[in-house]
Design goal:
Strand order of the largest sheet: 3-2-1-4-5-6
CATH superfamily of the largest domain: Glycogen Phosphorylase B
Structural class: alpha/beta
């Protein structure tokens, strides 16, 4: 069966779709999984051995998208997050069985609608995505491997990174101080500076600060703040897959609940992650797809006093890693 799986939003949201694609691929040997994704997620999708074909929705020509979908000859589609554009495109591509959550007006273009009530956050986003696959195969196993994405050349990438930056310590602890995606809470740069210096003070690990290609100003700001200590400032310009390979060898990845957190968990890196203290943006909804035992979640309160208490707790935790 040719199965189109649609998730055309941001990086972290796309990663929450990968377990569903994995179980659909492994349910039956003949299944062919076609992922419809946003341009930012193309390379990562192509790196997954359980995805057979990638369709990119660049948001431009609607009829161009219809032609791409029609060419894939899908027998069924599972749309994990819908909008009118992707719903209509599948309708006009004449996919026989079209599955989606029963939300938004776009649901009228699907012929199998599943009531999930995701706003109640009874499970994580990736778990809702997994559950949706049972509308296609009632007996499908929802188990998937962890880490979900591995690389044969990760050790080589790590060794080259060490050599290029003259790193003497064996293990790397990374901070990603950027703030984007659907993340709703983060520490200030002043607070991050304190946390970073706490790890450096222990002198056990090489500290690396990572930045996305659109974070050059933040990259320069942190260099100005931390000019006096031994830190590697890494501006990721080699692409998302290279970044995933690199951080898969890190000891710990510290960030807010943005896309890079989901990448780290996807490739098996232990994470320390900061979430807003509300249900919509919490770890209950946005915990990542990796081993839950490797994820440490902290909810940052809006109350000033409670925030300060949590900050001291995180600071103490970092002094003991």
């Amino acid at each position: 069966m040719n199965i189109l799986v649609v998730r055309t939003d941001k990086l972290g949201d796309f990663i929450t779709a990968l377990p569903a694609m994995y179980v659909l691929k492994h349910h039956a040997p003949q299944n062919r999984v076609i992922a419809c994704v946003a341009p930012i997620n193309r390379a990562l999708a192509e790196a997954c051995d359980f995805i057979d074909e990638v369709i990119v929705d660049d948001g431009k020509s609607f009829w161009g998208l219809v032609r791409k979908i029609k060419k894939a000859k899908a027998d069924a589609s599972v749309t994990l997050f819908s909008n009118t554009r992707v719903a209509l495109a599948q309708f006009f591509a004449h996919i026989p069985k079209r599955i989606a959550p029963a939300t938004k007006i776009a649901q009228i273009f699907y012929n199998k609608r599943v009531l999930q009530r995701r706003s109640e956050v009874k499970m994580a986003e990736f778990e809702y995505n997994l559950k949706l696959t049972r509308a296609l195969f009632a007996d499908i196993s929802l188990e998937y491997k962890k880490p979900l994405l591995t690389f044969k050349d990760k050790e080589l990438i790590y060794r080259v990174f060490h050599a290029n930056h003259d790193i003497q310590k064996d293990e790397v602890v990374a901070f990603h101080v950027g703030f984007g995606g659907s993340s709703d809470a983060n520490w200030s740069l002043d607070e991050y500076e304190i946390l970073i210096r706490e790890v450096i003070k222990e002198n056990r690990y090489q500290v690396v600060l990572t930045f996305g290609p659109d974070e050059k100003e933040l990259y320069e700001e942190m260099q100005n703040r931390l000019y006096d200590v031994d830190i590697i400032f890494y501006l990721s310009l080699e692409g998302l897959v290279y970044f995933a390979k690199l951080i898969s060898s890190f000891k710990l990845f510290i960030s807010t609940s943005t896309g890079t957190y989901h990448v780290a968990s996807l490739v098996g890196t232990p994470t320390m992650t900061f979430f807003a203290d509300n249900l919509f943006a919490s770890s209950k909804r946005w915990k990542s797809v990796g081993d839950e035992g490797l994820q440490k979640h902290y909810m940052i309160p809006s109350d000033k006093e409670k925030r300060e208490e949590l900050f001291e707790k995180v600071k103490a935790e970092l002094s003991k890693i």
